[in-house]
Design brief:
Blueprint: E1 5-9, H1 15-22, E2 26-32, H2 35-44, E3 50-52, E4 67-70, H3 93-103, E5 107-113, H4 128-138, E6 141-149, E7 160-168, H5 187-194, E8 216-217, E9 229-232, E10 259-263, E11 267-272, E12 289-295, E13 297-300, H6 303-309, H7 323-332, H8 336-355
Length: 369
């Protein structure tokens, strides 16, 4: 049987696309405005025909495809941004609808952040989630949307994402969005790298030493058999202890939080910052205490370690002019394993539609995951 095909918008570093490829979809073309993301795509998948362009003036070369996938910029919605409803980036979903109306894919998938459920679209007065769904419905699609916690979908993060799946005309009989599964922990993904594995991997150059105004690398002798442990270096005013467990998921791997490793007498404690004589004081009247990590040695995560937590395969190489260029690509990406599960869910829906049957999984049961 001919593989189902995809066209991709706002592709970024390719996490969503790669998940669909792993599930057997044929990639036709993709577009993004970030030059470094396009370089990453060309490095890893030149046959995807990546195009550097503004989605507002781009149209696909393809005449048809089975699935249109898109992860429009989330900064206008994100809790990590300014959350302005009138942010021009919040309107970019309209470009997905525009392309869907011309390309007429059988399925449209849009991925974004949690805040779509509460932020009000200025023109319609509806929450953005319902406004986007209504635009897709107006274009002839039946839509389902929901919030997904990544740790329940094969990704070692508590990060939550908002997903729309829209089938042309109507949903396949028995179709449901993916349901949550068991919690995924970080141990299978980065434990080996913490203990000095993976030395030859791309984007992986682990070097001990972390320059910080908060955390303290003592340089004291230590037992080198002592386990290296994961720690959070940024968000030092957070309520959560920065020393993390290998047997739990991380919070969101995003573009702002800095994670790393500590070894040798590792401790974490709160302390009060000197807000009269200290450096970089933004609010001298604040009384919040900060978390300080102390250990014999510290180091930040490598890009490969972040990519592992986003479930990118080790051979996927990120291209950038500096560390920030690469970190943004990884932090903004859709986790690959979550994308693969979405792709499988959609593939089963398309197969059911083609066979005029109900959606069933590979064992012949109704698909509930």
């Amino acid at each position: 049987m001919k593989p189902y095909s995809i066209v991709s918008m706002f592709t970024g570093a390719g996490g969503l696309d790669l998940g669909f490829e792993q599930e057997g979809f044929h990639h036709l073309e993709c577009v993004d405005l970030d030059p470094w993301s396009i370089d990453t795509l060309r490095q890893n998948r030149p046959d995807w025909s990546p195009v550097l362009a503004d989605a507002r003036v781009w149209s696909p070369v393809s005449n048809e495809c089975d699935v249109l996938i898109a992860g429009p910029p989330c900064q206008g919605f994100s809790l990590g941004g300014h959350r302005r409803a009138a942010d021009d980036r919040n309107k970019l979903f309209r470009e997905v609808v525009r392309v869907a109306e011309s390309l007429k894919p059988r399925v449209v998938l849009i991925e974004n952040v949690l805040n779509l459920r509460t932020m009000i679209e200025p023109e319609s007065g509806k929450p953005f989630a319902y406004h986007i769904a209504s635009e897709l419905e107006r274009s002839g699609y039946e839509v389902r949307f929901d919030i997904f916690r990544m740790a329940h979908h094969g990704v070692p993060q508590t990060r939550r994402r908002f997903v729309f799946v829209a089938f042309k005309n109507s949903l396949p009989n028995g179709y449901q969005l993916p349901a949550p599964g068991p919690i995924t922990t970080i141990r299978p993904y980065i434990y080996d790298l913490a203990q000095a594995g993976g030395q030859c991997l791309p984007n992986h150059d682990p070097r001990w030493g972390f320059d910080s105004a908060v955390h303290v690398e003592t340089g004291q002798p230590f037992d080198e058999t002592e386990e290296v442990v994961p720690v959070r270096f940024s968000r030092t005013a957070s309520d959560g202890n920065p020393i993390r467990s290998f047997d739990a998921p991380f919070p969101a791997v995003d573009t702002a939080t800095i994670w790393g490793w500590a070894q040798g007498g590792v401790q974490a404690a709160r302390f009060s910052k000197d807000r009269k004589n200290g450096k970089h004081i933004r609010n001298p009247d604040a009384n919040v205490t900060l978390w300080r990590v102390t250990a014999s040695r510290l180091r930040a995560f490598t890009h490969r370690e972040y990519a592992r937590l986003q479930t990118f395969p080790d051979e996927w190489e990120f291209i950038g002019g500096n560390k920030r260029d690469v970190h943004l690509q990884i932090g903004n990406a859709v986790p690959v394993e979550f994308a693969r599960r979405l792709a499988r869910n959609i593939r089963l829906g398309l197969e059911a539609r083609d066979k005029s049957s109900s959606v069933r999984d590979d064992d012949g049961r109704l698909t509930l995951f």
